[in-house]
Amino acid sequence: MIIIIEGIDKAGKSTIVQDLLTQRMKHGEDPIVFKLSQKPKDNSEKEQEKIKIIYTELFEQAKRLNNTRLVIFDRAYPSEMVYSQLRGYDAMQDEFWINFDKTLGSKSVNEQNVFLIYCMAPYEKLLERFESEKEEFLKKEEIAEILTRYDIFLGKTYVPYIKVDTTKDRLVNINTVKELIEKYEHHRR
Questions:
Q1: pTM (2 decimals)?
Q2: Which conformational region is residue 45 in: left (phi greater than 0), alpha (psi within -120 to 50 degrees), or beta?
Q3: Angle at which helices 123-132 and 143-156 pack, to 10 degrees?
Q4: What is the pLDDT of residues 9-44, one digit of tens each?
Q5: 145 lies in which domain range?
Q6: N or C: less crowded end of the chain, CB within 10 Å?
Q7: Residues 94-132 pLDDT 10s
């Protein structure tokens, strides 16, 4: 199973990953985690191509490991699609990324079970986290735009997803994720 953990900066992605790892390792499993936030150096075609190659190769590795291990992406290609507009181009309009998403969500690929967990928090809570944690990459005035772009992405993605409110009880969230994995494991038998 490949799980992609996504959401805006300070949404609680790493907390979900940490809780999921802790829970899985307690049961003797050893998941693989790719923590990736690949930002191009500039908006050149060369940099954009480099990012495409990185994600393509990482997902190919994940697919090979998928039959024996749980693979978790702490951020992945959806971030590229959402955040790209801040760098001057729109990856959500790029045929490569549209096809990349479509391929991961296709029935034949999804027999390998690729799922997305979208971590969300209310706007006010995000503002609070940005201020208290002194966020440097994303500016406070960009939060609303990025949240809107995530909504657009979720409306277009072919990959099955669930939303997790990271301001809720951590145990509730990890149980939601655990149920998703158990459903997959049961379906796979």
A1: 0.86
A2: alpha
A3: 130
A4: 888 888 888 888 887 777 777 888 888 766 666 678
A5: 2-188
A6: C
A7: 999 999 999 998 865 545 578 899 999 888 888 888 888
